[in-house]
Amino acid sequence: MAESKPSRRTALKIAVTAVVCGVVAGVGGWLAGSSMAPPPKTVTETVTKTVPGAGATATETVTKTVTETTTKTVTETVTAGAKPSGPPIKIGHLADMTGPLAVYGYSNNLILSKAIEYINAHGGINGRPVELVVEDTETKVATATSKMRKLIEYHKVDVVIGSQHSGINIACNPIAKELKTLHIPVGEAYAITAQKGNRYVMRINNNVREQVKAGIEDAIKYVAKKWVTMVVDYAWGWSNEEEFRRYAPQYGGEVLKSIRVPLGTKDFMPYIAQIPKEAEGIFYAFFFGDFLSLIRDLHAVRPDLKQYCPICAPEGIDTETLGEAFEGAYVLSWFPRYLSEYDTPFNREFREICGIDEKGKEAKTGKMLTLSHSWALWEAAFALKRAMEEINWKSKEDTPKLIEALEGMSFKESLFHVQGEKFIRDVDHQTFMRHFLMRVENGKLKLVKIIPVEKSIYEPEVDYTKESF
């Protein structure tokens, strides 16, 4: 499955198959077993029990097999169910609605709102409605920490999702532990589920180490062997530089020079002048205006350099307007922007529900969405639904049970996990998933290959399961 063991402890693998009686609401399988589980040892125990489903009764068969990690899988169908009633389950969204990441905030909140609407239209969670409470971070750490406390202490939310900003995530993680509230951040800095995380932090999306490790072999195969890295001069950029330098030599690549550029730089010429002549490719990590300034200047003086970057660079930007400056670039994506590049029944239904067109834009406004990031909020909502129903969530006092249910959970591709199969590693609460290598052709992000889950797995550095609640 991986180059390293996915867990340091011996635990239980739980495979759950639930068949929910009732009217199927136009969807296929909910979640199914995993091909990523490690080889089992010798002890197997099977127990059958009856549990409540959404608006009906479900028969659940639980198989427990002793292994070296914990994974949980489920196959379910979702019933239309009765209209949810009773006190709402409150989900807080720490959303970057204004400030530098407002494009992400708008897209993330749209997709999360659609997920909550869908859940409520199909019986809620355990028959209870779900209420979404949104607070704007303004993309500022100080504002966000205040809003995190407001969501938990004033609005009394049960779970907090967001923000997209890694610095905000790191600042809010200790608050989640202090106030004993599950936090599902969607930023991508490695430390969020490493040194700066805790047992109350659960990441459903990927991180920079995972991204770089997943894509590095193909970057060296398809793009170049002699590299320069150029990144924005703050934590996210440093993380990209560090991980690229870590993994490139392992696959026959060489990093000739690493260059850091201040955020908001308009003129990249002095930095491009530092690039060695023998460099064949450039790996960069910028976004929005910085990205646009870089490719403009790069095309003017070093058009020979082959480009490779994470999707964060062109995210939220219509690449069909960028012309020759971005043509031929390779991009590592978490979810293809164009339906044509990942045309599955689940993706079609997901886009129809959320009002997303075939180019990744909001159909009614024409706004380019940050779809390669926003899928994670959709999936987080349905992971919460599954876990809360598994433990028969009653109140926030059940948070420890909720966290334990999510630890080691795995997912098959479905409408509710439209990005593809994945699993949450129990010890560090990090999700591992497939990635998509794209290439810009006539301005469009075209699929080169799907990179399997196992390419992204690395050795964990922490074990949150040893922390008490």
**Overall number of strands:** 18
Q: Major sheet: size, sense and barrel closure?
A: 7 strands, mixed
Tell me the CATH architecture of one domain.
3-Layer(aba) Sandwich
Taking strands numbered 1, 2, ... along the chain, how are they ordered across the largest sheet?
10-9-11-12-13-17-18
CATH superfamily of one domain: Response regulator
Coarse structural class: alpha/beta
Taken in chain order, the helices and strands follow as: EEEEEHEHEHEHEHEHEHEEHHHEEEEE
Question: What's the level 1 CATH class of one domain?
Answer: Alpha Beta
Describe this entry's structure for a reader.
- With 469 residues, the protein is α/β, with parallel strands linked by helices.
- The protein has a domain at 209-333: Response regulator (Rossmann fold), CATH 3.40.50.
- It has ten helices and 18 strands.
- The chain has helices at 102-121, 141-154, 166-178, 208-222, 235-247, 269-272, 288-301, 345-354, 371-391, 399-406; strands spanning 11-20, 44-52, 57-67, 72-75, 89-95, 130-136, 159-162, 182-184, 226-232, 254-261, 281-285, 306-310, 330-333, 410-411, 422-424, 431-433, 435-441, 444-451.
- The strands form four sheets. Strands 10-9-11-12-13-17-18 form a seven-stranded mixed sheet, with helices on one face. A four-stranded mixed sheet has the order 2-3-1-4, with no helix packed on it. A four-stranded parallel sheet has the order 6-5-7-8, sandwiched between helices.
- Strand 2 (44-52) and strand 3 form a beta hairpin.
- Helix 1 (102-121) packs parallel to helix 9 and helix 4 packs across helix 5.
- The longest helix has 21 residues, at 371-391.
- Mean pLDDT is 87; it is low at 1-77.
